[in-house]
What we know:
This protein is of the alpha/beta class. It is built from 14 helices and 13 strands. It has helices at about 35-45, 50-65, 75-85, 105-110, 130-135, 155-165, 215-225, 235-240, 260-270, 270-290, 325-335, 350-355, 365-370, 385-400; strands at about 70-75, 95, 115-120, 140-145, 170-175, 180, 185, 195, 210-215, 295, 305, 310-315, 375. The site of pyridoxal-5'-phosphate has 14 residues, from helix 3 and helix 4.
Amino acid sequence: MGAIPTTREALAIHGGVPVRETLLPYGKQSIDDDDVQAVVDVLRSDWMTTGPKVAEFEEAFAAWVGAKHAASFSSGTAALHGAAFAAGLKPGDEAITTPMTFAATANCVLYQGARPVFADVCIDTLNIDPAEIARRITSKTRAVLPVDYAGHPSEVSPILELADKHGLVVIEDASHALGGEYQRRRVGSIAHMTVFSFHPVKHLATGEGGMVTTDQPQLAEALRRFRNHGISSDARQRQSAGQWHYEMVLLGFNYRLTDIACALGLSQLTKLEANLERRREIAALYTEAFQKITGITSPSVRPDVNPAWHLYPIRIDPLHLRAKRVDVFSALRAENIGVNVHYIPVHLHPYYRSQFGYKGGEYPIAEASYEQLISLPMFHGMSNQDVEDVITAVDKVAGHFAA
Ligand SMILES: *Cc1c(COP(=O)(O)O)cnc(C)c1O
């Protein structure tokens, strides 16, 4: 007797029973009672913003990544803007970055009136290709902004060599890579400046928030002034020195991170090691399971890195599945797996097309990879059942579409 198909086996998108009853998001923060208490303690203190928690968080964060200085910002985007300013980017300059990122990485170059120049990515990691950077350096190039896509550190050593040779500043956008390691060093201790985001889907959450780490004191000073209207000392320093005088020495912004957020960040930092371990466990479970599923390719990992696993982007192999990315995506969503896509290549957004004349076809590796990518749920609070549900759903959907 042949097996009678059960409703369980029918795809949810075709009216079958979904693998999960409720949607599993692709990323999510974890907030414990001690995180809540840390925030409450600040609310009961004398300072809501620019108090003692700011310096405490910055010092603890710098020590954690192994950098000499850390300057906090009100978001990762503000931190990128600060880094682009501190790098000295100005109208007429160019900065080279990857199209495979969130638009903020390239936008920060535009905030400074400079021009973002894209360079295509490596086919395995989807990180910017140092050889492509080299091809695009001109007499106007001032900075390079590699992005640690999905949490896999960029090849910063050859990029730093190029920077040395051409006098460039390297700003690593490590919004995905807090806790990642490159050649046995933690991300945040390697590039001239490294930028982090504390958005709730990232490794450490403060609501909105960001940080720039650097070993260079003059960069740290420029970052601190830039985030505080270009003023050379903060209100707390003045109050403790009994002074009213201050000087605005450059045109800055109010990009300060509050004491409330910094207290939350300090509390979250104590759990970062455990959270990274859990993300690495989940990645290992996924990678093992997908080896047995035709048409699904796991992210590659180079031998000299330990990724931080912000995302787990699988690739859909068009040779082995009778489906497009959108079909697999919609089928997984119907199974209540909150898949996402990272990223629409930046140069293909309407703003970049209209400002710079991109038409598609300029960055073939990023563009072709984008067509195949689906980000699966990946966050440290996922239970083993959540992980199993994702694997079951991927197996069900890939099995359905198998060629
Ligand atoms: C999240 C993110 C940012 C921006 O961070 P916000 O804190 O949301 O402003 C920048 N670059 C990348 C690659 C990101 O993932």
